[in-house]
């Protein structure tokens, strides 16, 4: 009788942490990939530095936005 109650309490407490951890890992991987590809693009065509930088910053911001949404859901979504 008490085991399902404890399991539910543990799952609800770990869900937010798991969500935040996975979103943080995904955002980190996304930012790393964007940075690597931006460096590769500038290495191939140094004249396109400004355009590549703009697109890279936009891509990194979108990847980090996912982590911010997960942070809001993990702590404020209850």
Summarize the structure.
With 78 residues, this protein is mainly α. The protein has helices at residues 2-44, 49-76.
Describe the structure.
- The chain has one domain (about 1-75): Up-down Bundle (F1FO ATP Synthase).
- Helix 1 (about 1-45) packs antiparallel against helix 2.
- The chain is built from two helices and no strands.
- The longest helix has about 45 residues, at about 1-45.
- The radius of gyration is 19 Å and the shape is elongated.
- It starts with a helix and ends with a helix.
- It has helices at about 1-45, 50-75.
- With about 80 residues, it is mainly alpha-helical.
- About 5% of the residues are buried.
- It is about 90% helix and about 0% strand.
Number of domains: 1
Count of helix runs: 2
- Residues in helix, %: over 70%
* Percentage of residues in strands: under 5%
Structural class: mainly alpha
Mean pLDDT: 83
Distance between the termini: 25 Å
Q: Biggest sheet, in brief? A: none
**CATH homology superfamily name:** F1F0 ATP synthase subunit C
Q: Give the beta-strand count.
A: 0
* Unreliable residue runs: none
CATH class: Mainly Alpha
Q: Which term fits the overall shape?
A: elongated
- The run of helices and strands is HH
Write down the CATH topology: F1FO ATP Synthase
What's the CATH architecture? Up-down Bundle
Radius of gyration: 19 Å
């Amino acid at each position: 009788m008490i085991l399902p109650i404890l399991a539910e309490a543990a799952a609800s407490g770990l869900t937010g942490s798991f969500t935040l951890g996975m979103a943080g890992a995904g955002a980190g991987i996304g930012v790393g990939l964007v940075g690597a590809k931006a460096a590769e693009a500038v290495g191939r065509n140094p004249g396109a530095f400004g355009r590549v930088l703009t697109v890279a910053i936009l891509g990194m911001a979108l990847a980090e936005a996912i982590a911010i949404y997960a942070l809001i859901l993990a702590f404020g979504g209850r």
